[in-house]
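Example (one chain per record):
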Amino acid sequence: MKNKHLLALTDISSQNLNDIIDLGIELKKTRGQSDYMPLKGKSIGMVFTKSSTRTRISFEVGISELGGYPLFLGKNDLQLGRGENMSDTAKVMSRYLHAVVIRTHEHSGIETFAKHSEIPVINALTDKLHPCQLLADLMTIKEYSGHLENIKVAFLGDGASNMANSWIIAAKMMNMDLRIAAPEGYHPDLKIYDSAQGNGSLTVISDVSEAVKDVDYIYTDVWVSMGFEEEAKERIKILQPYQVNSKLVSLASDNVRIMHCLPAYRGKEITAEVLDGEKSIVWDEAENRLHAQKALLAKILE
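Predicted structure:
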């Protein structure tokens, strides 16, 4: 994977994806006990134009634990805000750094950066995709189920979101059964499914009870992502029937587990009793951002 970008999971093979997940599991087991430092002597830029809790902390800590130097750059720290274009910035950073992690709004911006970059570029979230979150999600599922193939996942809420898009790609690559329950107007672009290789299945429906029937995992995300605040009132009203609550969970299998990429808004897309309940694996999922991203960095810079 040397000098390869990760803008979407489609940038790597299913085998690469499995290798990252397995390495993440191993790094989690040996954290604090290993001298494994593949980033020693390497500096990794972190360009964030969107606020962050889990992404920033997990990448900064992960880079440091692998022996590298994380250089955080907010939206006011670069000349991009004063008119320097993305291609020039990418060319300059390529002379200083060994990789760049970018969290931003427009997916086209990160694509432009990668086109002109001579070093690996990692997508830490755009409005279109969030591949790093899926690395952690898949790692978490493998820890709990022991495998990924034929796992059934129900994604409830905004089926056109960056998380739904990312899940569509991951499920197809890992041969999983994905059901997206979303209202009209919030269905995914099926071109996303066509862009990935694999034998996973996708079903898009409006009936939440049908979506969660016999699934292994129920997944949800915020209804109002950054950049959609003006639509908040309308979104909350339309998406209310897709809330993950105790009644909905009772319609799934007895062994179903609940996932959420966070931040969570209790009482909106998920209730507090479910988020903090015994079926929730949200905190393990959040922790695995660190381990999965360490594995990604190690593989992409090997």
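Caption: The beta strands are 43-48, 69-74, 99-103, 121-123, 152-156, 177-181, 201-205, 217-220, 257-260.
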